Amino acid sequence: QVQLVESGGGLVQPGGSLRLSCAASGNIFSIDTMGWYRQAPGKQRELVAAISSGGSSNYADSVKGRFTISRDNAKNTVYLQMNSLAPEDTAVYYCKAVDGRTRTLYWGKGTQVTVSS
Questions:
Q1: Distance from C-alpha of 52 to C-alpha of 50, rounded to nearest angstrom
Q2: How far apart are CA 93 and CA 7, in angstroms?
Q3: Residues of the chain by 3-state class (helix, strand, coil), percent to 5
Q4: For the chain, what is the mean pLDDT?
Q5: Which pLDDT score is estimated for 84?
Q6: Separation in Å, CA 99 to CA 1, 7, 47, 96
Q7: How many CB atoms lie within 10 A of CB 87?
Q8: CA-derived radius of gyration, the chain
Q9: pLDDT in tens, 30-70
Q10: Which of 78, 38, 32, 36 has its CA nearest to residue 52?
Q11: Residues whose CB is less than 8 angstroms from the CB of residue 56 and which lie 6 or more positions away in sequence, other chains included
C-alpha cells in the first residue's frame, strides 16, 4: 500500500502563486509515475501534470507555461508550482501515484485551491 498526503492548498488572488506538495509513504519502492489531477464542482477529474520516475513530464494545455511539476525521489515527494493562477484553476487538487509493477493507482484525499479576489 502507498499513502499520499497533499498539502499547500489555500485561497489566493488571481495572478498569485501556490506550491502543492504530495508526500508518499508505505510501499514506495515501485512507484513510477506521479501526477496531479484536479476536479472542479460539477466537472470531471482532469489531469493537470504528471512526471515519471526518470523526470519526464507532461502537462494539460490549460496549465502549460504556468505550472511546473517536479519530484524529489529522495524525499518521495512530488510538487506542483502554480503561477499566474486564475479563477478557473479553482478545484480540489489530487495527487496520484502509479505502481510500476502492478499498475495499481493510489490517490490522495485532495487539497482545495481557490482562486478569488
A1: 7
A2: 10
A3: 5, 55, 40
A4: 96
A5: 98
A6: 10, 22, 18, 10
A7: 11
A8: 14
A9: 899 999 999 999 999 999 999 999 999 999 999 999 999 99
A10: 32
A11: none
